[in-house]
Amino acid sequence: MHDIRFAPAAIGSGVRSALRLACGPALAFGLAACGGGPPGGTAEAPRPNIVLYIVDTVRADRLGVYGYGKPTSPRLDAFAAGAVLFENAYAQSSWTRPAVASLFTGLLPPAHRTVGRRSVLPEDATTLAEILAVNGYEGMGLVRNPNVGRAFGFAQGFSRFRSEDRERDETMLDRVRLWLDERQGAEGPFFLFLHAIDPHGPYDPAPEFEEMFEAGGAPAHYRTVRYLLGLNRGEVEPEPETADALSRLYDAEVAQNDRAFGELLDELEARGLVEDTAVIYLSDHGEEFAEHGRWEHGLSLYEEVLRVPLVMRLPGVPPRRVEEPAQHVDVLPTLLAYLGVEAPPTDGRDLLAARRRGDAPLDVYTHLDVDGHRAASVIRGPYKLVLPQSPSQGTAPMLFDLDADPGELTDLAADRPDIVERMLGLLAERNLAGEIVSAEEIEDDQIDEDVRRRLRALGYVD
Ligand SMILES: [Zn+2]
Predict the structure, then answer these.
(1) What is the pLDDT of residues 113-124, one digit of tens each?
(2) Are 295 and 288 in contact (CB under 8 A)?
(3) 303-326: per-residue pLDDT in tens?
(4) Looking at the domain assignment, is residue 345 inside a domain?
(5) Distance (Å, whole) CA 187 – CA 343
(6) How far is Cα 437 from Cα 42, in angstroms, rounded to an integer?
(7) For ligand 1, a single-atom ion, which residues have Cβ within 5 Å?
(8) Is residue 44, in this structure, part of any structural domain at all?
(9) Are residues 308 and 275 part of one domain?
(10) Cα(55) to centroid(ligand 1), Å
(11) Is 306 a member of any domain?
(12) What tens digit of pLDDT does each residue of 355-403 get?
């Protein structure tokens, strides 16, 4: 049994004080309740450190451990052999900010209301970092995508938080080393959140990775933000080789990040931290290469932008592959249950307990509302319904059978109006059928010039 345990008494005031650690990592040590302790240990089980590693823009099907044939992810593949891997993990949105907001809060977009280009994760949102801070974790956030920077509310709960220029992801490790050095001898556990960026456009891998994926033949302008924006806006006509050339550059970037991820794992090992550090690897969304005529992400809700890797190495939890669907909102309740920390109400669930109990999979919900592209989708069983809410997304609900048609090429809506109606009802129940008004917004002139410059470098602002 591994029940979510309630804190005995709230200390201090406010909602966060009710979210204190109730017991140690019960799952890790097979404990039924807080009263015990690790075999031969002290009364209170040690709390593991946590590393949450997001790599931006990685679609699951470009990773070896998810079935890809090219060597993009040797380090992740080896890591996954000792971890719980979710084969069917979904992003809650197809661009960074709402997806990470769902990850940080365990809430679907209608609840966190951090959906658009100017949306800010509101101060009153309860985030994973805040919950962990209340439970004695020292939080460090290091992000390479300004969409999840301080200006947009994502620094909540971290005692240290840096949003940095896009550099190679391996340079993140220098900062991590310094921080780990600094906190040597610190009493409590740490929560390290890293948001890496290599695979995000523009794709400009280091030469050795370019060579490995025979990506060097791509013309120089393919590596620019301007070109990708032009493709997205229909201002540039793709050439017959464009998708393949961009795809190779992207693979090279995925591999480059994989090396950086591996170096982080090596660092944990060198410091003797592997046994007591939970490491969660995932992506915020995928990427399109014209499978449905689009490029990059944030422009649709097709599988190529929603299917992400989710791999958790949790000390004490045996490695396995899990077929049941998982989504961003599940990460917070899963992690907190593992730690024995009471979770606030969320739209997700503890994936490990659900599996043990044999619960039926929950429906997967996704939402997009950025730059005039608005849609929502729900997946139940093999069926996926996409409800377009702006002209760019279509004119009527689309229904796909993902088992028979994983490429989402055949719209079954006209043949199965009964299913369409039922699934539209599901979206309405979750407040996903209409517009979501942002909880908080920031005006362009409130965003400092450095953040704007970095957003432009990723193609986000003109
Ligand atoms: Zn992203």
Answers:
(1) 999 999 999 999
(2) yes
(3) 999 999 999 999 999 999 999 999
(4) yes
(5) 24
(6) 49
(7) 56, 96, 284
(8) no
(9) yes
(10) 8
(11) yes
(12) 778 777 789 999 999 999 999 999 999 999 999 999 999 999 999 999 9
Nearest of 74, 103, 71, 105 to residue 90 by alpha carbon: 103
Percent of the chain at pLDDT > 70 equals: 89
Domain count for the chain: 2
What's the CA-to-centroid distance between 114 and ligand 1, angstroms? Answer: 14
Which structure tokens are listed for 88? 């069917």
With a cut of 70, say whether residue 11 has pLDDT above it: no
Half-sphere exposure (Cβ direction) of 2: Cα atoms closer than 13 Å: 26
Q: Could you tell me the pTM of the whole model?
A: 0.91
Measured in angstroms, how far is the CA atom of residue 91 from the centroid of ligand 1?
Answer: 10
**Residue 282: which H helix or E strand, with range?**
strand 277-283
Question: Are 372 and 298 in the same domain?
Answer: no
Task: Please state the φ and ψ torsions of residue 119, each to the nearest 5 degrees.
Answer: -65, 145
Q: What is the DSSP letter of 129?
A: H
**Same domain, yes or no, for 157 and 132?**
yes
Same domain, 281 and 393: no
Closest CA to 157 of 140, 142, 143, 175: 140
Q: Measured in angstroms, how far is the CA atom of residue 336 from the centroid of ligand 1? A: 24
pLDDT at position 166 is: 65
Q: Are residues 271 and 405 in the same domain?
A: no
